[in-house]
Amino acid sequence: MRSFLGRDILSLRDWERMEYYRVFEVCDELAPIARRRRNSDLLKEKILVTAFYQPSTRTRLSTEAAMHRLGGHVVGFSDAKMTRAGDFYQESIKDTVHMLEYYGDVIAMRHYQQGAPAEAARWASVPVINCGDGWGEHPTQVLTDLYTIRRELGTLDGLHFLCIGDMRMRTMHSISYAMTQFDIQATYVAPPEMALTDDFKKELKERGLRFREADNVADVIGDADVIYMEPVVQADYTKSREEARKDRGRTPPQYQVTRDLLREKARAQAIILHSLPRVDELPPDVDSTRHARYWIEAFNGVVLRMALLALILGAME
Amino acid sequence: MRSFLGRDILSLRDWERMEYYRVFEVCDELAPIARRRRNSDLLKEKILVTAFYQPSTRTRLSTEAAMHRLGGHVVGFSDAKMTRAGDFYQESIKDTVHMLEYYGDVIAMRHYQQGAPAEAARWASVPVINCGDGWGEHPTQVLTDLYTIRRELGTLDGLHFLCIGDMRMRTMHSISYAMTQFDIQATYVAPPEMALTDDFKKELKERGLRFREADNVADVIGDADVIYMEPVVQADYTKSREEARKDRGRTPPQYQVTRDLLREKARAQAIILHSLPRVDELPPDVDSTRHARYWIEAFNGVVLRMALLALILGAME
Amino acid sequence: MRSFLGRDILSLRDWERMEYYRVFEVCDELAPIARRRRNSDLLKEKILVTAFYQPSTRTRLSTEAAMHRLGGHVVGFSDAKMTRAGDFYQESIKDTVHMLEYYGDVIAMRHYQQGAPAEAARWASVPVINCGDGWGEHPTQVLTDLYTIRRELGTLDGLHFLCIGDMRMRTMHSISYAMTQFDIQATYVAPPEMALTDDFKKELKERGLRFREADNVADVIGDADVIYMEPVVQADYTKSREEARKDRGRTPPQYQVTRDLLREKARAQAIILHSLPRVDELPPDVDSTRHARYWIEAFNGVVLRMALLALILGAME
């Protein structure tokens, strides 16, 4: 297994089964720090640089919280408008990285352009963590998802995943790569214009993933052990806030997971994951069903990022 | 007396006299840390989550400074626009809290909606501190005010408070509840459209507060031991910056406290508090009078929040 | 030599030769902390307050990184819009400082108005570091430049500096004052409307600086040991983003430093400094020439600010 020391976390495309398990082991080791709510000193001598070119609540705050739980320090920005990168200068990734690499020991980057974190990693003397890049990937989110599933269901093998949402989204790419490393079957449900691309389907087939596509959640939810959701109604930031609000409540029923549907058709042990925030694909009355697991993901997201930071920065081997 | 360990600080409505004194005792104990400018390690193992949905300088920075003075860590956001809560998703308080509660050990929240921190506290596994909620309350500011008065005048009992400003404001609500727990008389002076509501006056009477209303500061300032001020000219954010500037300098004289008025009519020992920023209700030449105490409030505000954090998080009993 | 303990860093106008050397000595002492990427505990008990009224990436992040490398804490704001200073209230520097001074132990301020940090220092009980004030000065940037030059060329004496760009900019003022303290000759090249003012030229003459002005970089680059650059195309924030983009790529050739020009005319040992970000006065293919030193400045900028903070806060004598 490749060492995690100094490794960039850019994509799950090349991750092997054993690497996931190693990360989950370290998660289990570090989880008590978060659960007992007592920071450790493990990364006291280290600085995390956060470079968020797009707004983010969960990913940014959980990455920062993870660093603080390990006693570390954080510098960075959470809005490209507050930097020179977002203004007139349109500073190149290369120029930006040849600054950020000196301000800390690992860079966590979210960017609106696919590939930006990889471009950053090309030039940085410190490891780069992709915290979501455009339509690219979102490895730390999907590692959190998998860690949650393994904790909740005991295993990743032998499961059937139902992926619902916009298949162009970065989480869908990362989860698909991850599924190839386990004995997992997948069903994808998406509006036609948001379906898996032919190229991506070809790649998944070559990587040996058993999957099918369906039109309606109701037809296939009965097979699912894991219901993995993203919105299909996207924020359109060119619209005014008032206009945008009207877009809420427009998720077609075939892409929703409702309490009634779960009662009628879901397996008793099926669990629902959602990286949140949600629009109306997942109504609030699902929260109190036996299936909901999306809130505990916030806790697991801190633990997962603690493990990654500790491994990458050499505090754990 | 109820324990402070794990307690939400949402409203002063239900605070008892002894609870104020306990907080002030801890303030006196921790003040030397701030005065000597040497951080302690008391909250080194803890993380404060700041959730500021409205801009704030004093409250946010003093809460963060308090956490740092005690060696603690801070994560959070200072602008709703930088989060998913402020955009298209309009994420519910419940969903947001079921994320934030895992990122730290206490949540400090400012929100434009009255009751939002209380709603947050309903769902959070960690204590919530209300740092100002719409037209609701602002307990940490008013605790700072009271601590300042007790330090400056030696006592809270037997005093007469003159409250000037917009009585719909959250500080006015919190100070009114606080006054009911001490031997304090109150005079309120506000423009008619900003006066105390009938409901609130009824509540204050039921709680035994001796108070009256007056039209003009000049008529009543001679009775005051404490002159407690807020602006009566409000920022109108629907106006352009240039138009808004014209609103400055429009405070009617009967709601101003000037140097001349203080010389002519104020008691020698009377002190002026103002949570700042000010518009023109309190001209800068008052700053060098014997009455001004609003700047020392910034120092006391850090000490007060150190005490609250230490008590809530169990570092002091 | 004046003590650095508690000193404001506002301007290099009055800095003496020996003071620069003292700072560089402390830089050399602290540099291993940054190079080995292991934070020390030197300023663990201190809080830095950042008051950035204008966006900044390099200066803000390197100042914060310096504080963290020394184990310190940071509170502050990076956008005036997120404070009361930037809105309707237009809070005075005096009022703002009589708050910030209690939130930490040193204030690092960037402001769009020349003189604002000096005004802050007039009122603050803690030292103030000028992180760039309008068309005023930028001492920490220029100290970083000089430290870089001394490390790269071994000395500051006997050198010829070629300063290219907008001579109204704050870095140009600070570097000019600094040059008077060493055996340095200067050549300035700027568009006519951005030239040194008569008053400033008079002052530099009185301070004994040997300098000349020229129209075209190509004519004088052969004399330079240090090529010190700033853009001549300024961001015009009144223009739309699309219009502004058109301004890029408009630097007239006589103010550019290109790879060809360097090959033809520059001294072999000449080094190029640029505080970045750049527009197109310094094309990316210069990056791989022997002359480029602008990236290492990011590292040196952290070290320099570590030294200043340690000296000002009394952690080094």
Task: Write a concise synopsis of the structure shown.
Three copies of one chain form a homotrimer. Chain A has 317 residues and is of the alpha/beta class. Chain A has eleven helices and nine strands.
How would you describe the overall organization of this protein?
Three copies of one chain form a homotrimer. Chain A has 317 residues and is an alpha/beta fold. Chain A has two domains: 17-138 and 298-312, Rossmann fold, CATH 3.40.50.1370; 139-296, Aspartate/ornithine carbamoyltransferase (Rossmann fold, 3-Layer(aba) Sandwich). Helices cover 37% and strands 15% of the residues of chain A. Chain A is built from eleven helices and nine strands. The first copy, chain A, has helices at residues 17-35, 58-69, 93-100, 116-123, 139-153, 170-179, 198-206, 217-220, 241-247, 259-265, 296-312, and strands spanning 47-52, 73-77, 106-111, 128-133, 159-164, 184-189, 210-214, 226-229, 271-274. Chain A has a five-stranded parallel sheet. The first copy, chain A, has a four-stranded parallel sheet with strand order 2-1-3-4, sandwiched between helices. In chain A, strand 1, helix 2 and strand 2 form a beta-alpha-beta unit. In chain A, helix 5 crosses helix 6 (170-179). The mean pLDDT of chain A is 94. Chains in contact: A-B, A-C, B-C. Chain A binds chain C through residues 44-47, 49, 73-77, 81-85, 87-92, 94-96, 98-105, and chain C through 34, 37-39, 55-58, 61-62, 64-65, 68-69, 74, 78-79, 235-237, 241, 244-245, 247-248, 276-279, 284, 295, 298-299, 301-302.
